[in-house]
Amino acid sequence: MSGGEEQGSEGEGMRIDPARAKVLVENLQHVTQRVDAVRGSRKVRLIAVSKLKPASDILSLHHHPSHPHHDFGENYTDELTTKSSLLPPTIRWHMIGGLQTNKCKPLAETVPNLFSVSSVDTAKKADALEKGRKALVEKRGEEVGEKRLRVLVQVNTSGEESKSGVEPNETTSLCKHIIDKCPHLRLGGLMTIGAIARSKESSSPDALNEDFVTLRETRDRVAGELGVEKESLELSMGMSSDFEAAITQGSDEVRVGTTIFGERPAKKDAKIQ
Length: 273
Description:
This protein has helices at 18-39, 55-62, 77-86, 101-110, 123-140, 171-181, 196-201, 210-226, 243-248, 258-261, and strands at 45-49, 71-74, 92-95, 114-120, 149-154, 185-191, 234-236, 253-256. It is an alpha/beta fold. The protein has a single domain (14-261), classed as Alanine racemase (TIM Barrel). An 8-stranded parallel sheet has the order 7-6-5-4-3-2-1-8. Strand 4 (114-120), helix 5 and strand 5 form a beta-alpha-beta unit. The longest helix has 22 residues, at 18-39.
């Protein structure tokens, strides 16, 4: 990243601020160390949430010479689609924000390196993602195989009306629909956001969060009802304020944004590049 410019087929000519890149790498390494301190022998996926941050920030972390990061999360479908067109195909994109049904098919069809959609809460959205991924596979002349799109069912563990997600007791039905009706999707597990107040109370690794307990219990019940090993359904829970507690309570995947990238600008002021 010498000279303030990154070379490569994707991101070529994109300006990289060396001072900014240094801060981002240090922040990411610090978060990784905190994850390692509580995960034990388990593997935990760290999603760097780049919502409203420029593509150059992502490139700085993805092209780090010794510790390249691959998993990045976005909250808005349009932003994810735009960034994916600007950045290397070796990035694993995670759609973690709320989904509109009409955005599902184009997202799954136009972003080949879309690794996961974490916020599936209706059968209609699953069906639309299925159509999109099927169209992509057929267009590229590929076998389904590993090209199946990983999806997580979002569960409303807090019971808040403002939160998206299926009710815990309705989770199995949606999971079964994905397995039975969506051959181009792969059910990866369950996700929750949880109540903000509980997240703030869970800032220490040993803090108990009721939302995390509910998601874990829901996963265990769903696995039993589907007749699969519970470890085959991953738990995605925990963000900047509570990811250590989430890992301690069984999370396989955490979503960390501001701790890595800093405070976000208002959406109207955000610049993609």
